[in-house]
Amino acid sequence: MEKEKINILSEENQTEKTEKEEVNKEQAGNKRNDHVLTPDKPRRKEYERERHTPSYLREVLETTRPVKVTKGGRRFSFTSLVLIKDKEKKAVAYARGKGKETMVAMQKACRKAQKKLITYFPNPPRTIPYQVLVKDGATKIFFKPSPPGSGIKAGGVLNKLFKYLEIKDVSAKIIGSRNKTSVIRVAFKALDKLTGKKYEY
Question: If you placed Cys at 80, which of 10, 34, 47, 105 could pair as Cys (CB 3.0 to 4.6 Å)?
Fold first, then answer.
């Protein structure tokens, strides 16, 4: 009798084990199926990045590292000159920013420039309407319209500015100081003269 009871108990334990194994297998299979059937959802951070991507183009025109000598020693800082464009509004702006690191200076300059955005040409023309000569300090700039297919005949800062303005044919000449801050400031004054608008310097 005792042997029969032991055999019956062992059989019951085996059946319980097999039932539990079958249940576990079914649950694992359901989990796998759910994983396969659910579509790949974008992560929250990636979705937010795609949603809040700014429509700005940015060009760092110049980065300098001035040194301040004090009693405690030398103190280094960075200044960045940045030109930005809003692709939707077709607006441009420039600004300078200072910081203890290059990225900090760049971010400050971009934030300043975003507050000064101005749209000179809502519908960009092929070339400028007429020639213009503007002088400020030691820098003088001469803009001249060009025939179709001639392209942008300007170097450095002015070349990037005309690309952001989407002007295809123009020639520009810098006379005097070629300091990038002075050049970009005089270029914006020339655009003010061409369009009758006023940039916040």
Answer: 105
